[in-house]
UniProtKB/TrEMBL annotation:
GO terms for biological process: proteolysis. Keywords: Hydrolase, Metalloprotease, Protease. Residues 246-454 form the Metalloprotease TldD/E C-terminal domain. Transmembrane segments: none annotated. InterPro entries: Metalloprtase-TldD/E_C, Metalloprtase-TldD/E_cen_dom, Metalloprtase-TldD/E_N, PmbA, TldD/PmbA_N, TldD/PmbA_sf. This is Metalloprotease PmbA. Belongs to the peptidase U62 family. GO terms for cellular component: cytosol. SUPFAM superfamilies: Putative modulator of DNA gyrase, PmbA/TldD (SSF111283). The keyword Secreted does not apply. Residues 41-105 form the Metalloprotease TldD/E N-terminal domain.
Length: 456
């Protein structure tokens, strides 16, 4: 196992001995699976510990502490695959889990695409990316943070008469992946979040909004009172909304909502959708889907990145590369199974993409609004109206009408519609106002024209 020693400025913790124990369990399971006749095998071991606190209207609603662990083993008999899992690490339970996985494999049809990723693709340079930041934490302190967040928001304006509550969460996870190629990799990560949702107005005029902060290190979180005040301002800004007449207008997705557009693209170029022929971007590799200036880079090695990793879920070495460059799709998002189904090579994306950075060609949100001049700023999306096969897009939305480059009034009860192929090609600008709370790092995205349907 290759995990660097705990930094001296962090409180003492037992994560390294626990990772060693999980690694020993994984290696023991591999030995037993091979002894049972498996040609190939892989094991994942996880431990998670967390604390979650929710408060509402100044009162504690829930306090939940969790501690979970699990072991999953997959065996291959030729091209036949079997998987089983357990949360019990006693020898008899582990032996029964292996027996179950082997029994499933022996009675499963052969699949030519099954099997481990190729041995020569396994990661050899294993390292961490500053993702482990344990901090002393207890329920009382978490409650105090959540209460302070909500109180700060409720105190901003008398029109905020209700709350959907505030929360504080802390989590620490350890994981080990090992396979019969001789690969073993260990990872550990912490995460913290604080959030608040408030309600302003009365009766049918009530509006709800909120804000949250999430980080791998508690010190990187926004201050609780700042989160509460921002939730309040966002809620108040939504009061007295109007509807819009149906028409075609420019639509600016704020950075939070712009992530969903990138997510739709990632889903369309992911192996599962492609080999099932269930994507509107079939055969898109090497073709221009976005404007010529548009680019998306994947960087698995970003310090404190939410999805930084030296290896993917199959042990394949990750690499920094372009997903889109010059508007052209450079590659798909593949693990070894989907790659074999497509006759291609894995892109080290078993388990999903790592950190994505969308290239900006414009300034902050204020500059984006000025550049748009007149149109719709979308700050909330509702529903799941995206057809992955055709690319047809239709979702409920709320936000602000923009006139002369400035916010004119809030709007809700509207639907925005288009086709993702047309929308991607029609992107006019990406802002540098990156929302850092996700592994998909993008600023606001301006789509030149979409249909907006409202009751006005």
């Amino acid at each position: 196992m290759n995990v660097p020693a705990t930094h001296s400025d962090l409180p003492a913790d037992d994560s390294l001995p626990r990772l060693e124990r999980l690694s020993a369990v994984a290696e023991r399971l591999l030995d037993r699976a091979r002894a049972a006749g498996a040609d190939q095998c892989e094991v994942t071991c996880n431990e998670d510990a967390g604390l979650s606190v929710n408060v509402r209207m100044g009162e504690v609603e829930t306090v939940e502490a969790t501690r979970d662990r699990g072991v999953a083993i997959t065996v291959y008999f030729g091209k036949r695959k079997g998987s089983a899992s357990t949360a019990d690490l006693r020898d008899e339970s582990l032996a029964a889990t292996i027996e179950q996985a082997c029994a499933i494999a022996r009675h499963t049809e052969e699949d030519p695409a099954s099997g481990l990723a190729d041995a020569d693709l396994m990661a050899s340079a294993l390292r961490e990316f500053d993702s482990w930041h344990p901090a002393p934490f207890d329920a009382d302190r978490a409650v105090d943070i959540a209460l302070a967040c909500e109180a700060a928001g409720r105190g901003v304006d008398a029109r905020i008469g209700n709350s959907d509550g505030a929360s504080m969460n802390a989590n620490a996870s350890l994981s080990v992946y090992a396979n019969s190629h001789g690969f073993l990799g260990a990872e550990r990560a912490t995460s913290y979040s604080t959030g608040c949702a408030l309600i302003a107005g009365e009766g049918d005029a009530m509006q709800r909004d909120g804000w949250f902060s999430v980080a791998l290190a508690q010190s990187d979180l926004e201050a609780p009172d700042a989160i509460g005040r921002k939730a309040a301002r966002r809620t108040l800004d939504r009061l007295d909304p109007r509807q819009l007449p149906t028409g075609e207008v420019p639509v600016l997705f704020c950075a939070e909502m712009a992530r969903s557009l990138i997510g739709s693209f990632i889903g369309a170029v992911s192996g599962g959708a492609l080999y099932r022929r269930a994507s509107f971007l079939l055969d898109s590799q090497g073709t221009r889907v976005f404007p010529e200036w548009f680019a998306i880079e994947e960087n698995p090695f970003l310090p404190r990145g939410f999805r930084s990793a030296a290896f993917d879920a199959e042990g394949v070495a990750t690499r920094r590369s372009m997903l889109v460059d010059g508007g052209i799709v450079q590659r798909y998002v593949l693990g070894s199974y989907s790659a074999r189904k497509l006759g291609l090579a894995t892109t080290a994306n078993a388990g999903g993409v790592h950190n994505l950075q969308v290239k900006a060609n414009a300034g902050d949100l204020a500059a984006m609004l000025r550049g748009m001049g007149r149109g719709l700023l979308v700050t909330e999306l509702m529903g799941q109206g995206v057809n992955a096969i055709t690319g047809d897009y239709s979702r409920g939305a709320a936000g602000f009408w923009v006139e002369n480059g400035e916010l004119a009034y809030p709007v809700d009860g509207i639907t925005i519609a288009g086709n993702l192929k047309t929308m991607f090609a029609g992107i006019e600008a990406v802002g540098d106002d990156v929302d850092p709370r996700s592994h998909v790092r993008t600023g606001s995205i301006l789509v030149g024209r979409m249909t907006v349907a409202g009751g006005g």
